[in-house]
Amino acid sequence: MLSDLIQKSKFICTTADIWSGNNKSYLGMTCHLIDPITYERKSFVLGCKRIIGSHTYLNITETMTCMTQEYNIHYSKISHTVTDNASNFAKAFRTFSTSVKSTQSTTLSVGDLNEDGSPFEDSDVETENITVVDIGQIFTISEDQNIDESFCLPPHMSFWTLISRSTVASDKILEKCGCKFPIPVVTRWNSLYDSSLKVLKYKQQLTKAFDDLHLIKLKLSEWTFLEEYCQVMEPLAISLDKLQGENNSFLGYVAPTILVLRRLLISFTDLKYCKPLSFAIIQAIETRFNYILDLSRPESKDFIIASISHPKFKLSWSDKDDSDDDFFDSICNDNVFTSPSESESRNSNLANLQALSFLNLKKKDLDILNDFPVIKEVFLKYNTTIPSSAAVERLFSKAVQVLTTRRNRLSDDTFQMLLCCRSKYDL
């Protein structure tokens, strides 16, 4: 069924990553496509095959090729393969990509991809474009900041530590607040923001609970710090949620989201404590996504075409019609694409005429693509790609439930079949 569906689709996107458990390593791949009639995103598991030995770029290439060949997927059908920024994946595509040209690489990876070897080139460590940031220095008092000397954070997160280890404390918090509080997890991007946001939501109840639990109450300056932290991190958390989505996320979301995020962070000018944090995020965005901010660079081509061909953004890269209004309005402009004169229109070819009509249409539903076959073809080619490899990470979350300590003698084929059954193919 999946092979037939892939053969009928003009474009597909795949994601790939490596997971290790019980001293075994597996490379997982997922497949994503768009129904050309309903424009619904469909996601499937291609497999999760064992990798023997080191995670070298040769091993990765061989395993990925084996999986795509099982489904008779020709490389020309795959619009993009989305992976993390590990150097071994980058080298695999840099070396074996069939469309690599001498002047331009199709691997959209930020960082140094020169042929010079490095001690990490065959590892799955994300070594590309890593910037080490000293968090302590970010919040160091600078000469141009007048920070209240009474501001100080406790040496550890005593509240979260206590409720995660003590059932008595957890029950007391449940009694006072009527809910449980999430614990920050280092492997989840937004967990600290989500946890802090909930603390602020139940500020009054927690103040009373702190007395019962004999915890040191937060000072006014510390509550202000949490409020500013959530204010700064909110647009970043929203951006990550949008780009890590599957069903309603497309490659065309990347450029508008990055531009909106940077502009929102720049607009936070009244911060007292978290201004250094805002500056650090802005600097990281400008470094890692410089090819998005400078749209004249060749690497930005796919992102530009994907955004323009998406009815939601077109040329304005804004939205005024749905729940995303507050987020994307920050880069909203009312520029209307000027139609050419009648004589120029007569000389335009079909593609140009469709493009002009599409860009001037006010509707933003995907269904309008049915009226513009040329634009629809461009949309499917570039927006079949999903912005992140989160889908394969979700596959690995299920793999943990299959390959448990008591089932470590499962054969590789049995493990893969059980994982596919648990995923029900459709993610």
Automatic annotation (TrEMBL):
Organism per entry: Macrosiphum euphorbiae
Q: Which PANTHER family match?
A: HAT C-TERMINAL DIMERISATION DOMAIN-CONTAINING PROTEIN (PTHR47501:SF5), TRANSPOSASE-RELATED (PTHR47501)
Q: Name one GO molecular function term.
A: protein dimerization activity
The record's annotation in SUPFAM superfamilies points to: Ribonuclease H-like
InterPro entries for the chain? HATC_C_dom, RNaseH-like_sf
Report the superkingdom from the record.
Eukaryota
Q: What's the protein name?
A: HAT C-terminal dimerisation domain-containing protein
Domain HAT C-terminal dimerisation, first and last residues per copy? 371-423
Question: Which Pfam families does the entry mention?
Answer: Dimer_Tnp_hAT
